[in-house]
Amino acid sequence: MKRLTLTAAVALALPAFAQAAEITIVREVDSNNYDPHRAVARAAAEVLFMLGDTLVSLNPDMQTIEPGVAKSWEVSEDGLTYTFNLREDVYFCDGKQMTAEDVAYSITRWVDPETKSPVAWRAGDVESVTAVDEFTVEYKLSEPFSELLYQLTQSFGTIIDSTNVEALGEDFGVSGLNGSGPFCWVEWTPRDKMIIERHEAYSWGAPFHTNTGPASMERITWQVVPEENTRTVAVLTGQSEITQYVPDIALAQLRDASTVEVVRSDLAFWTYFMGFKIDKATVSDPAVRQAINLAVDQTAMAEDLFFGEVEPAYSYVSQGALDWNTSLNDTLLTYNPEEANRILDEAGWERGSDGVRSKDGVRLEPIAYVFAGSTWGKISESVQAYLREIGVAMDIQAFDATVAWGRLATQEFDMFGMSFPYVSSGDALNLYFRSENMPTPNRMNWNDAETDELLQAGKTALDDATRAESYGAVLEIVHDAAVWLPLYHEPMVVAQSADLETVVPHNIYGAGLYKGLDLKFKE
Amino acid sequence: MSIAEPADLDAPAPSLPWWRRLVHDPAAFVALIVLTIVVLCAILAPLISPHDPYASSRAVMQPPVWSDRGAWLHPLGTDGQGRDILSRIFYGTRLTLLIGLVSVGLGGVLGSLLGLLAAFRPRLDPWVMRLVDVMLSFPAILLGLALVAVFGPGAIPVMIALAIATVPDCARIARSIAVSVMKQEYIEAGRAVGLSDLALFTRYLLRNCISSILIFISLRFGQIILIGAALSFLGLGAKPPQAELGMMAAQGRDFLLFAPHIAVIPSVMIFVIVLAANVLGDALRDVLDPRLRS
Predict the structure, then answer these.
(1) Domain count along chain A
(2) Do B254 and A228 touch (CB under 8 A)?
(3) At A338, which CATH number?
(4) Are residues A257 and A301 in the same domain?
(5) Which CATH number goes with the domain that contains A45?
(6) How confident is the model at residue A280 (pLDDT cuts 50, 70, 90)?
(7) Same domain assignment for residues A254 and A362
(8) Rounded mean pLDDT, A144-155
(9) What pLDDT does B109 receive?
(10) Mean pLDDT of the B270-286 span
(11) In whole angstroms, what is the distance from residue B160 CA to residue B1 CA?
(12) Which residue of A28, A30, A382, B6 has the lowest C-beta tally within 10 Å?
C-alpha cells in the first residue's frame, strides 16, 4: 500500500520535470484551405511544410538544393528532362508507402488546368511527369526552366496521396490531408486553430536538419491570434512557445525577457514595395517615379516604424538573393529630397498654390491601393508624408484583404502596396515583370519586349552564368525605369521560449519554422 | 363681464429665463464650459496648433510632457509617425465634431419632417412609420460598413450612414409629440378660422414640437459622435493623413503596451466630448421641456 502511494506520487510529480512535448504556435491569420495547389497564403505554406514533403528541399542559406523525398536527381543536357530517384523508405501518415506514382500524380494535379492552381506556372512548362519504375520519376518539360528545383522545394510541390485526394474531393485540405511530413493532420478549426501530431515513422528529413526524424514535438497547435499585442503577451507568459508573428516594437522587450529568446535570420527574402501603374498620367513620367524614389527615406522608416528590425530596401529583391546584379549596388536611388524636387522642377511639374505639383492639367495626386491593417497603414502614411514634401499628394485607399485582391486586379489605381516572398531574383522577376502577367500580378503594366526576352532567356538558361546575366539585365532595366518604390526587406525573426533549443529560422515562403523537425525542448 | 387679460391665461412663467436656469445647474455649467473650449479648439485648430498635424518627424512615440522623458516641444507627445499629438487632437476634434453635427443635423431635419408629416396627415402615417421601422432594423455600424463598401472609406459616407441612422429615432419622437399636439384645441381653432395647411404645419405644429425635438437631437449628438469614432476606429471614416479621434485611437492600438498615450489621449478626448454633450443634453431637457417644469 505504501509503495502504491509512492508510485502515485512519483507519477504525479513527473510532469513537472519532463515537459510534455507539446507546443502552441501563435500566428496572425489562417489560410482559406490547406490544398497545396490552391492555397497560396503563407499561413498555408507554414503548415503544409510540416504536413508534407517535397521532392527536394532548400537549405536555410536559400541557395543550396538538398535531397527531399528524392535522394538524387539528374538533369539532361538540354535541361528538359529531370530524373528523380526516390527514397524507398517514405510513408504517408496512414502508413501507405510513397511511390513514383504519387509524385507523378501530385505534379500532374498541380499543373492540370482543371485544378485551376494560381501557382501552376511555378512547376514549369510541364510536358509530362511519369513513373518510370516504382521509385524513379521522369519530369519532362517542353522548355528548360532554370528555377525548377527551387520551385519544387515550395509547399506547392508537396507530394500528396491520390486516394486521399479522391476520397475527400472538395474537402481535400479542409477536413484532412494525408501527407508524408514530420507531422500529421489532426483537426482544423478555420480561423481558430490547426492541430497536428507527430508522424512516428518519419525518418527522412533533409540532411541540413539536426534531427532527421521523427520530430521531437508530439503535438503542435497553430493558434490564430489576430491582435499583435496579445501575441506578444502570449509569448511573454509562456502561452505560446514560439512564433514569428511578434510586432517589431515588442522585440526589444522580448530580448530583455529571460524566458524568451529572439532569433533573427541574416537573410531577408520578403520584400515590401509600392509599384507604379506606369501608363497612368500621374506616374507615367519616369522623372516623377524617380523623384518619389528619392523622396522616401527607407532607412528612417526602417528605424522609426520598424525599430530597426527590418532592412531598408533600395533594390527590388534582396541584395543577398540568388542572381542579384551587384553592379547596381552603387546606382540605387537613396534619400535625397532636394534632388527629387530639382528633378520635378526640371521636368516641368510646377507647384500650385496648395503645394501640389501639376503639369498640363495633371495634378500629382496618385491614388494608392493598399491592404487595410496596421502594417500598410504605417507604411503608406509614412510614404504619404514624405511625398508631401516634394509636392505629391498621394491618396491612400485601404481595402480589407477580402476585397483588396480584386481591387488590385483593376486599372483604377496609380500606385499599389504589395509584399512578396521569393527564393531568387528570377522567381520575383518572372512573377511581376512578364507582360503576359498583366493585369495581375504585373499590376504596373510593364510591357517591354526586351524584358520578356531576357526573362525567357533566364528562365530557360542551361547554366548559372547565362541565367544570372539575363536576370541581372532585367534588374537593371526595371531599376532604371523606377517601376517600383522599394521599401524594406523583412528578415525572418522568430521569438521562442528559452526552454526550446535555439531554432534556425528559414526564409522559404516566409515560413520561418519550415518542417518543425528541430523544434525541441532543452534537456 | 370683463375679458381676461392675455397674461392671465398664460401658464405661470418660470422665475428665471432658461439659460439662467441652465448655468445654475453645476454639472451643466461645467459641461457647457468644457464643450465651449472643445468647440473653440476645433474651430481655431489652424491658429493654435503648435505643429503641422500631417508632418511626420523622426521623433516617434515621444511621451507627453508629464512623463519623465516628455518635453514642451510636443506637450502631448508624438504618435508612431512622429506627428504632434496635440495638433492632431485639435484637427481630429474638428473632424469628429463636424461628422457629429452634419449627421445629426441632416438626420434630425429629415427625421422630424417625416414624423411631423405622419402626425399631420394620418393617411400617410402607416406608410411613413413602416419605412421608419425598416430603417430602424439596420444598426448604424452595419449601415456604415455597407456604405463604405460602396463608396470607399471617407468622412462623407460615414456622415450619410450616421444621418440615416438618426432619421428613424427622430421620426418616432417627432411623431409621438406631434400626435399629442394635433389633438389640441388650437389646431381645431386654426382649422376653423381657415388657416392653410402650410400655416397650420409651420405656425402651430412645428413651433410646438421644436423644443422637444431639439432636446432629443442634443441627446443624440453624443451617441452619434461615439458611433462615428467607432467607424473611424474600424478604418471606415476619415482617410489618412486626416486626423480623426477614433482613427487616432485605432492607430495607437499597436503601441498600447509600449506607448499607451498614443491611444489613450484621443480616447479620453472622445470620452470628454460625449460626456459633456450628454450632461448638457440632459440639463437642456430639464430646463426646456414644459412637461418637466415643476
Answers:
(1) 2
(2) yes
(3) 3.10.105.10
(4) no
(5) 3.40.190.10
(6) very high
(7) no
(8) 94
(9) 95
(10) 90
(11) 60
(12) B6
- Is B55 among the domain residues? no
Q: State the smallest CA–CA distance between residue A418 and chain B in angstroms.
A: 18
CA distance A175 to chain B (A): 32
* Same domain, residue pair A167 and A224: yes
Q: Are B53 and B93 in contact (CB under 8 A)?
A: no
Partners of A243 in the β-ladder: A495
Q: In this structure, are A243 and A334 located in the same domain?
A: no
Q: What is the pLDDT of residue B290?
A: 61
How many structural domains is chain B composed of? 1
Average pLDDT over residues B110-122: 92
Q: What's the grid cell of residue B216?
A: 432629443
Q: Does residue A6 sit within a domain? A: no
- Specify the 3-state DSSP secondary structure of A187: strand
Q: Where does residue A115 rank: exposed (0-12), middle (13-18), buried (19+ CB within 10 A)?
A: middle
Q: Which residues pair with B111 in a beta bridge?
A: none
**Alpha helices (H) in chain B, listed in sequence order:** 6-9, 18-24, 26-43, 45-48, 85-120, 125-136, 140-151, 155-182, 185-192, 197-199, 207-233, 245-252, 261-288
- Is the Cβ of B241 closer than 8 Å to some Cβ of chain A? yes
Of A247, A250, A300, the CB nearest to B58: A300
Distance CA(A74)–CA(B60), nearest Å, equals 55
Segment A318-335, tens digit of pLDDT: 998 989 999 999 999 999
- What interface predicted TM-score (ipTM) does this complex get? 0.79
Summarised one tens digit per residue, pLDDT across range A448-461 is 999 999 999 999 99
Q: State the nearest Cα–Cα gap between B61 and chain A, in angstroms.
A: 9
Q: Residue A18 pLDDT > 70, yes or no?
A: no
Helices B261-288, B245-252: axis angle to 10 degrees equals: 150
Integer Cα distance of A395 and B242 in angstroms: 11
Does the structure show a pLDDT above 90 at A240?
A: yes
Give the model confidence (pLDDT) of B211-244 as tens digits. 888 888 888 899 999 998 888 888 788 888 889 9
**Residues B157, B140: contact at Cβ < 8 Å?**
no
Q: What is the pLDDT of residue A118?
A: 86
Range of the domain at B146: 29-50+78-292
Please indicate whether, in this complex, the C-beta atoms of A305 and B80 are within 8 angstroms of each other. Answer: yes
**Domain span at residue A415?**
270-489
Measured distance CA(A41)–CA(A510) in Å, rounded: 10
Are residues A211 and A314 located together in one domain of the fold?
no
What is the C-alpha separation between A261 and A498, in angstroms, rounded? Answer: 5
Residues A195 and A335 in one domain: no
In a domain, B270, yes or no: yes
